[in-house]
Amino acid sequence: MPDEPKTLDPTARPAAIPAPAPAPETTAGSTGGPASAGDAPAAEQAGRARPAPAARRWTLGLVTVGLVLAALNLRPAITSLGALLEEVSANLHMSGTVAGVLTSVPPLCFAVFGITAPRLARRFGPAAVVCAGMAAIFAGLALRPLATGTAAFLAASALALMGIAVSNVLMPVIVKRYFPDRVGSMTGLYSMALALGTSVAAAATVPMTDALGGDWRLGLGVWAALAALAVLPWLPVLRDRDRGPAGGGNGGGARTGESGTVPRGATPAAGPAPRVTRSRTAWALGCFFGLQATGAYITMGWMPQIFRDAGVPASTAGVLLAVTMVMGVPLAFVIPRLATRMRTQGPIVVALATCGLAGYTGLLLAPAAGAWLWALLLGVSNCSFPLALTMIGLRSRTGAGVVRLSAFAQSVGYLISIPGPLLVGVLYQHSGGWGLPIALMGGLMVPQMLVGILAGRDRTVEDEC
């Protein structure tokens, strides 16, 4: 099935390009015949066909590196803590309920600070905000090991999570801005990097802590170095914050496919940003994002402890979490590309939810005996995250709409996900086991499947506003 059309940012200014040599006017899907009256102007299409100037290609290269490094830093602050949660809780004298609050801090920060991302991006540019976000992650991760009490530890974690929050929202925006003709592949690339950073932090934190003398503070603090590295590629991009993507392909705001050409009959998608709060699709996407985030943060925060309580060694429990996370590396690249080639994404939603139900059932009945299989199944299920990011790009026709929809869906979603990890901690502490918490996790897969099907329908928020 052909690609779903995508959106160019109507607000960005095209780069200056020398006048092209005369060329035949063609459209996507045509065989070289003349362009019809409904097609994009010939000059605009010719500009899209020409390679970008060398300086702009260099900028695109920096943005690509920056996206990958930023994505690598969007989860280690969380999964590294999950691997050492028992040691941190004991050292800082946390109860099970307080530890549950700690695992709820990430979605809380993502909801509170993520909603500010569009305004910050309009004021400073998305690249500058992501650069500042990486600096905040570095500062938070560097300060967290210095905390001597729960309050200071939470404050340092919140600083890092604030940087993650704004970067989370702006990743789809930067992809749409700089790579309007490669939304699926670039979303897959940074989703794959995000999954890689998540899994490496989960697997390597305990061994690194042991190698550093067993001090959990050093094991958590070492991830600040990766965040510092992620700041660097964005610095040269800041001077281009008021320019559009390379090649001048942003000028009309027309919808494009993965090929980068304008579909026959397409028109520029300029206009005011949609009021996404009036869109049923936006609400369905926000609920889907929230339910998948609930499962993801429960998994990252509690799954190692579930395995440890079942008799699995601490180092193996960390590796099992890494297996769950590493499943997202190849699938995070494949799923967005597959989703952009489907008119509706409901079948993918159902397949991922089914894997989640099977994984939680196994975790409830035989957590240690089938640990590796359950980790694999839950890893597949957690790939609802790159699917949700892809649907954000597919459910809006305009660049301004993508910014609004990304902020809305992620903020609503993370608000929905806040009670999940906390409720798991409370149930675990008061029930004395993992039966009720795991039943809750599995039960949430059903509404996630339903709202995901609604969010995956072939429509855009502009059609409903």
From TrEMBL:
Cell compartments where the protein resides: Cell membrane
Q: Which Pfam families match?
A: MFS_1
Q: Which residues form the Major facilitator superfamily (MFS) profile domain?
A: 59-460
Q: How does this protein sit in the membrane?
A: Multi-pass membrane protein
Q: Where is the composition biased (Low complexity)?
A: 24-50, 256-275
Q: Where is this region: Disordered?
A: 1-50, 243-275
Q: What is its main location?
A: membrane
Tell me the domain of life.
Bacteria
Q: Locations of Gly residues compositional bias? A: 245-255
Q: Does the keyword Nucleotidyltransferase apply?
A: no
Q: Which UniProt keywords apply?
A: Membrane, Transmembrane, Transmembrane helix
Residues crossing the lipid bilayer are: 58-78, 98-117, 124-143, 149-175, 187-206, 218-235, 282-302, 314-335, 347-366, 372-394, 406-428, 434-455
What CDD domains does this protein map onto?
A: MFS_NIMT_CynX_like
InterPro entries, alphabetically? CynX-like (IPR004747), MFS (IPR011701), MFS_Cyanate_Porter (IPR052524), MFS_dom (IPR020846), MFS_trans_sf (IPR036259)
Q: What is this protein called?
A: CynX/NimT family MFS transporter
The lineage, from the top, is: Bacteria, Bacillati, Actinomycetota, Actinomycetes, Kitasatosporales
